[in-house]
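In response to reviewer comment 3 from the previous cycle, which asked for concrete evidence that the modeling workflow produces usable outputs, we include below a single protein chain processed end to end. The sequence was submitted unchanged, and the resulting structure tokens are shown without manual editing.
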Amino acid sequence: MSTATVQLPDVTSFQDGEKPILSPARVGGEFLLGIQDLADLSHVHRNSVRAHPENKQLQATLVNLLRVRSAAMAVSHDPQKAAFFVRNQPIPSFGHKTALQLVGEGRTEDVIGYLASIEAGFVG
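The workflow returned the following structure tokens.
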């Protein structure tokens, strides 16, 4: 009996050194987001991004960005295309907002559901 090996997405490249948190600079770099962009998206003060990267609200936003990126990669199979989609692609079903804007509005699950429906293909 053979056992299938499941390849999980590797997010360790986004880790903040040896700390068990995501690096705002590394995640932000993936989407070309600066400190102020991350602060606005996370609804925290810009100093929190640099001085307190462990901030729960900031970390939740970083995790959500990587979750949406992972869902986009399931569709495109390309990290660059997935990051481009998250940052730039208007989604008609959501008033032509981008996935990035929707994450900032707390609608991560909606974006992931949308991408899952695309991955599954048209059923009708």
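Residues 80 and 105 are 23 Å apart (CA to CA). We consider this sufficient to address the reviewer's concern, and the full set will be provided in the supplementary archive.
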